[in-house]
Amino acid sequence: MMSNVCHTQRRLIKQKPSLLACAVMLACGASSVPALADADVQGRITDNRSNLLTGAEVSIPELKLRRTTSADGRFQFNQLPSGTYTLLVNYLGAMPETRVLTVADTTQQLGDIKLLSASDSVEHIEVVGQSGAVSKALNRQRNAGGIVTVASTDEMGQFPDSNVSEALQRLAGLSVERDQGEGRFVRVRGLAPDYNAVTYNGTQLAAPEAGRRAVALDVIPSDLLESVEVSKTLTPDMAAGSLGGTVEIKSLSAFDRSDDFYSVTAEAGYNEQQSKTSPKLSGVFSKILDAGGETDSLGVAIAASYAERKFGSENVETGGSWDFDDGLEEFELRDYSITRERLGLALNMDYRPGSHNEYYLRSLYSRFSDNEQRQALVAELSEPQFAGASGEAALIRSLKQREETQSISAIVLGTKQTHGNWHWQLEAGASKADEDTPFNIASADFEQEFDDGVGFTGEQIIRLNAPAEAYLTEGYALKEVEMGDTYTKETERNIKFDLSREIIQSSGSMTLKAGAKFSQREKEAAEDVWLFEDFEDAGISALSMSDYSNTTVDYGLGTMGGAIDSGSIYRLVSTLSREDYVDEVESRINDYQVDEDISAGYLMAQWERDNWQLISGVRYEHEQRDAAGTRYDDINEVFSENRQKSSKGYWLPAVVGRYDLSENSIVRAAFSTGLVRPNFEQLAPAFILEEDDDELEASFGNPALKALTTNNVDLGIEHYADKLGVLSAMLFYKQIDNFIYEADLAGRGDYADFAKAETYVNGGKADLYGLELNAIHKVSGFGNWLDNLLLSANLTLTDSAADIEWFDDGSIFSREVALPSQSDKTANLSLGYETDTISLRLAANYKSKYLAEVGDVTDAAYDVYSDDHLQLDFTAKWTFQRGMQLYFNVVNLNDEPYYAYTGSKAYNFQYEQYGRTFVLGVQITNW
After folding, report:
1. pLDDT beyond 90 at 441
2. Interaxial angle between packed helices 19-31 and 2-15, expressed in degrees from 0 to 180 and rounded to the nearest 10
3. Model confidence over 431-440: pLDDT tens digits?
4. Which candidate, 251, 250, 233, places its Cα nearest to that of 242?
5. Dihedral of alpha carbons 24, 30, 36, 40, sign
6. Does 381 or 22 have the greater pLDDT score?
7. From CA 333, how far away is CA 442, in angstroms rounded?
8. Domain count of the chain?
9. Cβ(795)–Cβ(827) under 8 Å?
10. Residues of 144-165 as b/e, b for ≥16 C-beta within 10 angstroms?
11. Contact 636, 645 (CB under 8 A)
12. Which of 873, 807, 817 is nearest to 840 (CA)?
């Protein structure tokens, strides 16, 4: 029968050659090798309490075959030659298990293989708590073909992290970018979030923010997930889209538990800045049912999470308004009051009518609502001045109020089938994300002029010096109100097919794999802007700030005075006709649509023999892009459509290898290639042409930008302790081509007669290299309280260099900068103490300063840096009854602020403090 199938496939290949067809030919040729296979062997690895063990290594040394158990603890060997063999099971923290295996003509169901603890002090393996979480993650990391870092849902629960982004900051080589003190975007090995991909069970997640591809992971509650796996090396079967790494979010399945499961968590939080209570409630339920005449064949898992967090921050910033010779030109005091709501839902179903067939549905919905009110006092100094001086200035009281809602949804439907040594998977996925900020106050400004007496003191924390009238509402007059309405939507749809065949040989095994994928991505952005001014002409007589203020700003970094009431501003603009105040240019120039179609195929081979494992292959991706935006000629006051199309293909080879020096020591090496497509903001074909003092000026996006591509080299060694622990060191190097930066093209090419022509351009090469060090140790052997300690530390050292250019007086100049968001040092240190009833953990997260943005391409003194950041977090848990825990968390224990500066630390760019957050909660689980 196989020969007939292959004959038909060869006939199809003659009609239309393809990458996938070539792989099928290769596999068919391999099938002509004399058949040795006789039967399948299946089983499941558990502890002696029937808890499923993920990442256990199951091997048959005589055949040089190896399997790693999935989240459901299962393993399967297909079509083994008849004979008697040794089945060996290894799992960190457990005693090795050996069994004699006799293969005959029928499938062998080995059932549950129960492992015993490697510790002398306990009989069972720790699968919950700190040790259990670390054990799960390390076992999956050890047995991976490439270089991966794993955070299981149990490990995420050991820290006071409310979302996926904050959970990942604990892992080696990873750090986060924060918004209002909360982790938001993930950086991998020093590369900015836009250089990393985020997938949900293999489907690329759409990004809700306008202009970006990066997914803000604070949208997704960590309660909804089974694990998060970060792949730092790319293999050909992985979709392109990352330079630093791919963050794979894996959802929970009912088959990941040995029985029906539920967990309920309720907590209340308190933030020092707001002095308000923040509730959270989450739950997980899974059940395995009989279906289709099969026992335990249908699994249903449901998860839900709701959280409301009330918090705030206090800020003072200059925005880089420094003249280093004469002083500061402008600064701003800000007070934020924020309410964030997170709602997360997940429904996952698995149908397994037999050991060779699987059908699955994965779904996710997450909504993030951010209600933010910002009171500000802006000081516009007539002349630049240094601290301690005073002079003439305009003071502006400003209000921003908006409710922004982001949502991400994803659905994946697929099947996995096994026929002998043939495996195939067909999967369709879709993801949608949007960001909606309906009619909101972008700024409501009241202004007052002072002839003298306005200045400032301080460096990092700048404090306003002004007459007493500056803090009263009566002297401020309404200047203008800007309102906005924005909406962004992104959709991603894909379908993929993977086919593989394992060939068992006396010297080892070879797995040939091929696949194809087609995806469509669409990004739309729309914005409307209204500028309300000249209120007297509209018959508005209430122009004093006192008419719009009824409270005082509670500002901890100084005095701000009365607060602007947002309700009064909304009532004001509601009396005016919106059509009369439309800012047509701003409303149309920020609208765009970008469509991308990507077709991909790959060939890959995985070879295992003795202590060697080698993965090699190539991926090809072809993209077609259609970008549409608006061009505005301010000189002639004319709008026109600006549309551009492009088409490009990329070859992405990779070789990934590992060698087991011993049972516990592994050497890893890899060469891989990757690419990241430009941001939508950079690609958007918006174009503004203006004339200022008879000089032409332009600013525009660049749809002709090339994708960033990278060559990656990794080399490292890992040593795992028998009981629990790891020591590892990983060297990595990345050479990045077509680095993108903002530049002024005035004086060159089509812009030779322009005074300014700002856009995005591709640079040359950028280099990134570094070293990851990771150590985890479960203390044992003392026979006292010390055996309850768990130590964890990691350190990533990184350096980078990229050249940026500019044109001046007919000559090209350049200078070297670090890659944005790249910290030289990223580190984590945690100390855990755990007994059967008490669990304590103190964690420190550190990242050194990094380049936040290039302030002036021509002058390094205006580059903006985010300062060093060290944050301490603490969590305590008390198990007062089996399956019932009371916990207490302190986030930002040391009250670490955020500080950014221009050039050197003496020149404030932004200072912001968030206070501590305290959380008290209870969790009930049917372990």
Report:
1. yes
2. 150
3. 999 999 999 9
4. 233
5. negative
6. 381
7. 17
8. 3
9. yes
10. bbbbbbbbbbbbbbbbbbbbbb
11. no
12. 873
If residue 655 lies in a helix (H) or strand (E), which one and from where to where? Answer: strand 638-660
DSSP string, 43-60: EEEEETT--B-TT-EEEE
pTM of the model: 0.86
- Give the 3-state secondary structure of residue 367: strand
C-alpha dihedral sign at 535, 539, 540, 543:
positive
Decide: 808 and 858 in contact? Cβ < 8 Å: yes
pLDDT (0 to 100) of residue 651: 96
Same structural domain for residues 232 and 260?
Answer: no
Q: Do 2 and 48 belong to one domain?
A: no
Q: In a 3-state reduction of DSSP, which class is residue 578?
A: helix
Strand 695-700 with 754-762, pairing:
parallel
- Other beta carbons less than 10 A from residue 687's beta carbon: 18
Q: Are residues 534 and 641 in the same domain?
A: yes
Q: What is the CA radius of gyration of the chain?
A: 30
- State the chain's maximal CA–CA distance in angstroms: 98
CB 634 within 8 A of CB 658: no
Decide: 770 and 798 in contact? Cβ < 8 Å. yes
Backbone CA torsion sign across 828, 833, 835, 839: negative
Same domain as 204, residue 178: yes
Q: Do residues 431 and 492 touch, judged by C-beta distance below 8 A? A: yes
Phi then psi for residue 892, to 5 deg, are: 60, 55
Q: Supply the pLDDT for residue 271.
A: 87
Q: How many CB atoms are located within 10 Å of the residue 513 CB?
A: 22
Alpha-helical regions (H) of 718-865: none
The full DSSP string for 173-228 is TEEEEEETTEEEEEEETTB-GGGSEEEETTEEPP--STT-----GGGSBGGGEEEE
Strand partners, 197: 246
Least confident of 12-21, 80-89, 806-815: 12-21
CATH number at 789 reads 2.40.170.20
Looking at the fold, whether 865 and 882 belong to one and the same domain comes out as yes
Amino acid at 233: T
**pLDDT for 45-56, tens place per residue?**
988 777 888 889
Pairing, β 687-692 against β 612-633: parallel
How many other CB atoms are there within 10 angstroms of residue 364's CB atom? Answer: 25
User: Distance (Å, rounded) from C-alpha 135 to C-alpha 122?
Assistant: 15
Beta strands (DSSP E) in 819-882 are 825-834, 838-847, 850-853, 864-866, 869-881
DSSP for 684-696 reads ---EEEEEETTEE
Name the pLDDT band for 11 (thresholds 50, 70, 90).
very low
Q: Where are the beta strands (DSSP E) in 506-611?
A: 508-532, 549-552, 562-564, 592-609
Full residue range of the structural domain in which residue 73 is found: 31-250
CA dist 793 and 60 (Å) reads 34
Measured in whole angstroms, how far is the alpha carbon of residue 24 from the centre of its chain?
36
Q: Which of 898, 892, 881, 897 has its CA nearest to residue 918?
A: 892
Q: Is the pLDDT of residue 14 over 50?
A: no
Residues 226 and 335 placed together within one structural domain of the fold: no
Q: Do 265 and 232 fall within a single domain?
A: no
Least confident stretch, 101-105, 617-621, 821-825, 866-870? 101-105
Given a cut of 80, whether residue 787 has pLDDT beyond it is yes
Q: How far apart (Å, rounded) are the C-alpha atoms in residues 403 and 440?
A: 7
Domain boundary among 235, 250, 265: 250
The domain that contains 45 carries what CATH number?
2.60.40.10
How high is the pLDDT of residue 531?
Answer: 96
Q: Same domain for 172 and 123?
A: yes
Q: Cα separation of 217 and 167, whole Å? A: 10
What is the spatial distance between Cα 306 and Cα 369, in angstroms, rounded to a whole number? 11
